[in-house]
Amino acid sequence: MDEHCCELMTSQIVRHCDDHEDPFDCPDALVRFDAGSREYGLIIHDGGTSTIGIAFCPWCGNRLPASQRDH
Fold this sequence. Notes:
InterPro entries: DUF6980. It comes from Streptosporangium fragile. Pfam families: DUF6980. Residues 3-70 form the DUF6980 domain. This is DUF6980 domain-containing protein. This protein has one helix at residues 7-14; strands at residues 31-34, 39-43, 51-54. With 71 residues, it is of the alpha+beta class. It has one domain. A 3-stranded antiparallel sheet has the order 1-2-3. The mean pLDDT is 89.
């Protein structure tokens, strides 16, 4: 998938932090996209690598592409 639902989502997916190599360590990283499963998730900043799956974009409100779990 080359494009996401809006510019804000795209900017979150492609963002790079100069201070944190891992997005789970960066407090400014909010969303993770798994290209393999096509799933979007909000990053839980608790020291681990957990996310909460989302079906709608937090910025534009568009429905995100269906993931494999929806089939």
